[in-house]
Specification:
380 residues; alpha+beta; Translation, Eukaryotic Peptide Chain Release Factor Subunit 1, Chain A; Nucleotidyltransferase, domain 5; 5-stranded mixed β-sheet; 4-stranded antiparallel β-sheet; globular
Length: 380
Amino acid sequence: MHSLTVDFKSGVLGSRTGPCLSLYQPTHRHHPDNQQDPVRFRNLTRVLGESLQRQYGSHDATALLEPFHALATDAGFWNHTQSGLAVLAAPEFFRVYPLLRAVPERAVVAESFHVKPLLRIVQSADAYHVLTLSRREMRLFEGNRDALEEIDLVPGARTITEALGDELTEPHLTVASYGGAGRIAQRHGHGSKNDETDVDTERYFRAVDRSILEQYSRPSGLPLILAALSEYHEPFHSVSQNPYLLTEGIRVNPGALSSEELCRRAWRAVEPRYLARLGQLVERFGAARGVNRGGENLQDIAAAANAGRVAAILIEADRVVPGRIEEDTGGIAFGSLDRPDMDDVLDGLAELVLRMGGEVVVVPVDRMPVDTGAAAIYRF
């Protein structure tokens, strides 16, 4: 599976040639509840097909829908789902994102992806990565306070053999025979095999560090927690160039932990950083508001966001303000979610700020500094 946090700005928010298909549904982690999930997925796929026919009658929908049909019959996939699912498709583009949080069912065909259900997942302040590491291999997980999901890593440094290839040191061996003719030959190592192993481990850890930094940490900006035996923490930290790597890690064989226990220990490590970040953002907003460079009025925020003036915005989690943002003016038309042309103003603000290069952070209600659902810090 692809990493949503890495993919979001370039893959999801990036420019696409329509039609763009967006499918969302809640899923279940365990049997027998998960048996209904592929059925619901097929129903939503059928809705996409009908919308394609209605809106793009002359467009060949077969190629766009084919990967949806293939996913619907993938028993292995449906036996390992999380709490939600997002599937996005466009010409020459198909992405499947298992989600750690549930999302409402929705099937949308438009000229761009429907991304609002993803915003509160991608921009939440409690997200992090966990790197499980040994001398021979590594795995990477993305998580929040509730759950972990393993990332399907790009080739390069998943194992020491993959990373070092022909440069992997072979032990120096000789063959000797003891006890006369007919005896079994025995192999004996010469040279410092332990030194060679240590060199290989260091080179592998460097390759892992480069791969994680370039492919995952830098694109996502998420804190990275190392989960490994105690003996591997100092060597990895000593070679790491990753500024997102936390000093606090998980000192245990990660293979001995369940996913739930790994998540609990990871959250214990990242929670102080999470609380500190929220505190700094709230303090930053208070200082900005004190000099008329911050505010909570939604109409004012929408106009500023439309003009590219919002440097950062705090969005209240699980809050919905029915309405839509007018693209030409940046004004807000409030309404009811029962109307098909209405959506959530807060999600609209978040998407607009992101597209204008601003920072978006989704904040729990008990940490919000205002009661309107949004707090903006202006650039000027």
